[in-house]
Amino acid sequence: MKHILDNSSRLIKTFNSITIFEKGKQMGFGMPYNPETTDIYNLSNISSEEIPKLPQSLASWLREQDQESLKKWNVTTFPIEDSQVYSRLALGHYFHAQFDVIIKKLKAEGFRVNALVNCTVTDILLEIKSNTGKVVANNGDYKCSKIVIATGHNFLNTDQPVTVIMEPRGLLKKFYLVNRNSIILRLAF
Ligand SMILES: Cc1cc2nc3c(=O)[nH]c(=O)nc-3n(C[C@H](O)[C@H](O)[C@H](O)COP(=O)(O)OP(=O)(O)OC[C@H]3O[C@@H](n4cnc5c(N)ncnc54)[C@H](O)[C@@H]3O)c2cc1C
């Protein structure tokens, strides 16, 4: 979207309508930073000064947020620094806000933008004769002249966190780790 915005005067001569498909409930967070897939304890590993240019920098945007929101995203060290990393949640909300800003700017440039949530793409069909494509989604088909695929990561297996069982009698005596293959490690001290 940022690339389209940066080149809007040229690209609007080629297409003026954009449809974005997102299978999740909310648009623009980025999968690892979405409240549906992370919690407040996960840190990101990219600082404000390392993020490619968006309308506003992460640090500048965080400085404008209220204390209550910052607390919810586990942003607890102040002042906010350009070189510091913050929680994935904070980063996700930042990306979400930048997404909204970019969409508004695209609309102001004359693009029609249709951002669809809860909308899973199940197939993409090319129509060679007309040099067009069809996006097949769970709520219908969409004819397109250009298609950009940005599906991100795909986790094939369901997450199965390791279960930790400890018997802390006095000093740690036994320590069992049970993973999905039922391997048990016993560490005696
Ligand atoms: C656990 C984890 C932590 C990470 N942490 C960092 C970090 O701290 N710093 C860093 O720089 N990079 C990090 N990365 C890498 C970085 O997040 C990715 O490179 C980045 O998110 C990729 O962006 P994207 O838009 O291509 O994909 P994504 O952010 O994955 O977005 C793709 C979107 O497409 C949607 N989608 C997928 N399939 C369909 C479909 N069929 N129909 C409709 N919608 C669909 C998904 O729901 C998702 O919202 C991390 C990656 C992972 C997996």
TrEMBL record:
Check the UniProt entry and state the signal peptide residues, or none: none
- Classify the source by domain of life: Bacteria
Coiled-coil ranges (or none)? none
Domain called FAD-dependent urate hydroxylase HpyO/Asp monooxygenase CreE-like FAD/NAD(P)-binding: residue spans: 7-153
The cross-references to InterPro entries, in alphabetical order and at most eight, read: FAD/NAD-bd_sf (IPR036188), HpyO/CreE_NAD-binding (IPR038732), L-asp_N-monooxygenase_NS-form (IPR052189)
> What is the protein named?
FAD/NAD(P)-binding protein
Q: Which organism is it from?
A: Lacinutrix neustonica
